[in-house]
Specification:
The chain is an alpha/beta fold. The protein has helices at residues 10-16, 41-44, 66-69, 95-112, 131-140, 180-198, 219-222, 239-245, 248-267, and strands spanning 51-56, 72-74, 79-81, 116-119, 145-152, 162-166, 170-171, 174-175, 212-215, 228-235. The structure holds zinc ion.
Length: 268
C-alpha cells in the first residue's frame, strides 16, 4: 500500500494515517534467432550477467518502530515518511509478510535463470529501510531492473493488480528522465506476465482499468537511477483478493509472473 504525499506534503499523510486507502522455468529458451544449443549458458541462464534488485515493501517489524519510520526523508518531490507499516488482510496477514514471501520466491526463480539478485531488506533490520535508501540500494547495485513488491489496502470490491511507473520528476535531487522510458517497458512486461501467470485482472479501481499507473509522489521511484517499478499484487482488504494473496500456490504464480516480466525485459 502506497499512500500519496498529497499536495500538503508528508504532514497530510500524518493527519490521514487513520484512513484506509491511499514472481520456474530455468530452461526458458533464448530468443529463437540465437544460435544457442540446449545446454548453452544463453539458453539455460538468460539472465547471466544481469543484476536485479527486489524491494519487499515495508518490514514486518515496522509496527514496533512507529516513531522511527515516521521520520521525514527527502523523497525527490518533497518529503515523505521514512516507511509505513503497510496494510493487512482482515484476518491479520500482513502486507510486509506477503512482500517478503513473494520476494524470496522471485529471487529463487531469477537466480535459477542466472541473475544476481539482491533484496533491499530481508527482515534483517528492525525497521525500514526508508524509501530513499530503498532507491539507493538499487542504484548502488547498478541494477538492470528493480521491482518493489506491494499489496494494496483499498475497499471491498476493489480488486486486481496494478503496476506503478515513475513519472518525469526533476527536483529535490531526483531526476527520472533516464528511467521513465525503460521503466514503462519493464512495467508493461510485468503486467502482461503477471496477468498471464495468476489470471488476475488489472485493478478495477485505478488507472481506468489499464493495470498501469504513473506516480510522481513515491520516493522509491523518484530517487531511482535504474529502471524500476512497483507492483500492487492485489487488494488485501477485499475477501476474494485476500483469498489469493494468502494462498502460497497463488504467491508462487505471482512471483513467476513478475520474474517472467523481468526476464522478458532483460533477456531480449
Ligand atoms: Zn505497500
Amino acid at each position: 500500500m502506497l499512500i500519496p504525499i498529497g499536495y500538503a506534503g508528508w504532514l497530510a499523510w500524518d493527519a490521514a494515517a487513520g484512513g484506509g486507502s491511499a514472481e520456474d522455468d530455468a530452461k526458458r529458451p533464448a530468443a529463437s534467432a540465437a544460435p544457442a544449443g540446449p545446454g548453452s549458458p544463453s539458453s539455460a541462464r538468460p539472465l547471466a550477467g544481469k543484476t536485479v534488485v527486489i524491494d519487499p515493501g515495508h518490514n514486518p517489524r515496522n509496527r514496533d518502530h512507529v516513531a522511527e519510520i515516521a521520520r521525514a526523508v527527502q523523497a525527490g518531490r518533497g518529503h515523505k515518511e521514512c516507511d509505513t507499516t503497510g496494510t493487512a488482510t482482515d484476518a491479520g496477514y500482513a502486507e510486509a509478510a506477503f512482500t517478503l514471501d513473494v520476494a524470496h520466491r522471485m529471487r529463487a526463480l531469477l537466480e535459477a535463470r542466472g541473475a544476481k539478485v539482491a533484496l533491499t531488506h530481508d527482515a534483517d533490520r528492525p525497521f525500514g529501510p526508508c524509501v530513499d535508501e530503498r532507491a539507493r540500494i538499487g542504484n548502488a547495485a547498478h541494477a538492470d531492473a528493480a521491482v518493489s513488491v506491494h499489496a494494496d489496502g483499498s475497499t471491498v470490491g476493489n480488486r486486481g493488480f496494478h503496476v506503478i511507473l515513475p513519472a518525469a520528476v526533476k527536483q529535490d535531487g531526483a531526476d527520472t528522465s533516464a528511467i521513465v522510458g525503460p521503466s514503462r517497458v519493464l512495467g508493461e512486461r510485468i503486467a502482461d506476465k503477471f496477468s498471464g501467470a495468476t489470471g488476475s485482472r488489472p485493478a478495477n479501481y485505478i488507472a481506468a482499468g489499464s493495470g498501469v499507473n504513473v506516480r510522481d509522489d513515491l520516493g522509491g521511484l523518484n530517487l531511482s537511477t535504474v529502471p524500476k517499478v512497483f507492483i500492487e499484487c492485489g487488494n488485501m482488504r477485499d475477501p476474494k483478493d485476500a483469498a489469493e494473496l494468502t494462498d502460497a500456490k497463488w504467491r508462487q504464480k505471482a512471483a513467476r509472473g513478475i520474474a517472467d516480466g523481468i526476464t522478458d525485459f532483460l533477456a531480449r
